[in-house]
Amino acid sequence: MPTHEQMVAAVHAYVNAFANSDPAAVAALFAPDASVEDPIGSPAHIGHDAILAFYTASMQTGAKLTLEGPIRTAGNHAAFAFSVALAFKDTARIDVIDTFRFNEDGKVVEMRAYFGPNNMQGM
Amino acid sequence: MPTHEQMVAAVHAYVNAFANSDPAAVAALFAPDASVEDPIGSPAHIGHDAILAFYTASMQTGAKLTLEGPIRTAGNHAAFAFSVALAFKDTARIDVIDTFRFNEDGKVVEMRAYFGPNNMQGM
């Protein structure tokens, strides 16, 4: 079971990777067979190559993440609320909650992002 | 598919039910065969009777919920961040994120709560 501190560190590494426009740093947080459902309900990106490609494209929007409130952890799960700013549209704000499920090694095996059209402002 | 407005209304009804110490009002938000995993990773409360019993016990702590930031919705899912105050210990604060999955009728079929010991303060 990953510790609270390991899961919190992974979330901060995720946010920092966006700050540094470093998709490889995000991909390194995931297990090789992980799935990313962003937003939840859309087709999942499965496996390292698909996940790296997805975050490479995501970061081309210049997305920067700001955590909103404490990171919640329970067992091998974490959830965190954040807002997203976009480089190409400085009035834009997207409010998102992500959930991470971790494996025994502290790698993320499932990521799901909760946001929709009603969570986008100033686009 | 429930609308954003239906899902937001369900979340507000959930928060208001705690404000009113009304477990039946919470139970009415759930489908008859729904599951409640609170916190995520613990054994689920499944079905109306188990869910009503769970919320009846929960509300005996005097728990009151304050939403923190906007309710996120995507497809038939919602996620929301909140803090919990407890009547018997006025210094206590628990930070939680809940996720709801809805059915076609706008009833909650799966609830999962993300929080752990590190999300409790002043207990």
TrEMBL record, chains A, B:
Protein name: Steroid delta-isomerase
One GO molecular-function entry: isomerase activity
SUPFAM superfamilies attached to this UniProt entry: NTF2-like
Lineage: Bacteria, Pseudomonadati, Pseudomonadota, Alphaproteobacteria, Sphingomonadales
Keywords from the UniProt entry: Isomerase
InterPro entries: NTF2-like_dom_sf (IPR032710), SnoaL-like (IPR037401)
Residue span, SnoaL-like domain: 11-111
Pfam families: SnoaL_2
